[in-house]
Predict the 3D structure of the following.
Amino acid sequence: MKIFTGISLIALFVIVSSSAIIQRPGSLRINPADSLQAVRDQYIKQVSEAIKGKEQMAVDSVFKNLKVFGGFPAGNLLLAMNSWSRALGVTCEHCHTPSHWEDDSNPEKNIAREMSKMTSNITNEYLRKIPGMKNTKALINCTSCHNGKLKPALRIEN
Ligand code: HEC
Ligand code: HEC
């Protein structure tokens, strides 16, 4: 499980940096609050209550079926889940049966795992190896492609 710790640290950086964007006043144009947030907030509250007191423990010691995440505090998993959901424009139910969060029977959940690995690989193996880039910390996240939609755009929409 630990082989993905490096990936997860980058993922966490992305999460933390994107939540800073969400919370910055006047940033609505960049990351508009979407109408599905109220639904997600209910589930986030439900999981937060279930892990109460364990927020600072290692994420993979608190949750049951993690194959990608590791190496950050359990409380931050919910930030990651909310960022992924926002990036795709969905609620938690797109990948999960609520209350059975560890269940893997929905194929979208495994696709998300693979997308997460792909995203880290693009950043580490391609983007950061392009010589002469002004931003040496450049990165790709789910939003870079999905931009609030399940299907990334293939052409500019007018
Ligand atoms: C695009 C798919 C997707 C969406 C949307 C999503 N999740 Fe997840 N979730 C995952 C994946 C993938 C994992 C497993 C990560 C891993 O293997 O390390 C996961 C793991 C979890 C876990 C840990 C379960 C366990 O015990 O192993 C919880 C809790 C969870 N998600 C809650 C949520 C909540 C709450 C939301 C909505 C705010 C949400 N998820 C939205 C894909 C998603
Ligand atoms: C480099 C671009 C790119 C990045 C980055 C990316 N995706 Fe995707 N994703 C795609 C494409 C392209 C598709 C296929 C869309 C289609 O044509 O159906 C897709 C499809 C998906 C689907 C399946 C949608 C469906 O209709 O069933 C999920 C779930 C998903 N992505 C989750 C994620 C998550 C979570 C992340 C971030 C961890 C992410 N993606 C990052 C390009 C990307």
User: Anything to note?
Assistant: The CA atoms of residues 58 and 68 lie 13 Å apart. The first helix runs from residue 5 to 23. Confidence is low (pLDDT under 50) at residues 16-31. The chain has one domain: 2-146.
